[in-house]
Amino acid sequence: MESACDVIARRASIHSFDGRRIAADVRERLADYLRRLPDAPFGSPVQATLVKPDDAALAELAELTLYGSVEGASEYLVGWVRRGRRAMEDFGFVFEHAVLYAVALGLGTCWLSGTFRGSRIADQIDLMDDYVVPCLTPVGYPAEQPEALDRPAKHAATPRRRKRFEELFHRLEFWEYDGEPQGPAEPIRERNAGRYGPVFRAVQAAPSASNHQPWRLYRYTSEGEGGTIHLFLERTPGYAKAAKDIDVQRIDAGVAMAHVSLAASECGIQGEWRDERPEFVPEGLEYIASWHEQ
Asked: Read out DSSP for 200-240?
């Protein structure tokens, strides 16, 4: 299989599929991967499976999904997670691994969020009361001539460009004697990102709801220390949760965490995500997690 960074770079949101059934060997490889999904960083149980909705379920999905319509897909990758404080980040992390594996197999995907509790899809997976389905994705072979559906989604804003490195990544230097910032955060540009360049590019390419790209990564450093990378959210004003238990921008954060882990591993950087909120949180940001090299 190609590298994770290459898969991340070529991934695109596909809404139009050619209707072909997924080849048996490809489907089995994907199904096998779904049986051995990676552990979630904060321990929430996350599962996923392939589902073939009937016509009634497909019609229902068109009404339930918040960020796009789909044509020509006969199968869906459905994920669910137990409710909990870190459920959304854990779901985004694990489900993105599954999505990227499907892309690596030559399949098209498109994250779709919505309110799926009580739906026919939820019935097909026997969803338990303490679990939610935050997102799902169609899986199949992209249409050779995409329809207008592959342009702006029905509930999405006009597509936005990818945010620049300087908007997403920053370095903050701290005084060693008192732990206070030495000054304002310094933007990290691609040319001076060092060995984390490929990691940051993978985060820059991550999918997010309505392409808002709400994640912000800050590298905290002090004299003699390599520093820790903290992940924050810059909330989109007026951007509502999909439902009571579903926070799509925290799912986005989990997707960014997956891209850090995958790209760092390919770059020979070993590390892990921890819930260790720093004393200093930049104004206007919401703490999510911290990446510690091992």
From this structure: HHHHHT---GGG---EEEEEEE-TT---EEEEEE-PPTT--
DSSP 35: T
| 134 and 179 assigned to the same domain | no
Distances (CA, A) of 195 to 104, 141, 148, 191: 25, 35, 39, 11
Task: Please write the tens of the pLDDT for every residue from 214-273.
Answer: 999 999 886 545 568 999 999 998 776 656 789 999 999 999 999 999 999 999 999 999
Report the C-alpha gap between 18 and 143 in whole angstroms. 4
Token duo for residue 134? 């935050």
Domain count for the chain? 2
Does one domain contain both 184 and 274?
yes
Tokens of 236: 């989109």
CA proximity to 289, closest of 250, 263, 262: 250
Give the distance, in angstroms, between the CA of residue 87 and the centroid of all CA atoms in the same chain: 13
Q: What is the enclosing helix (H) or strand (E) of 151?
A: none
Structural domain of 204:
165-293
Number of other CB atoms surrounding residue 263 within 10 Å: 23
pTM score: 0.92
Under DSSP, is residue 132 helix (H, G, I), strand (E, B) or coil? strand
**CA-based end-to-end distance of the chain:** 26
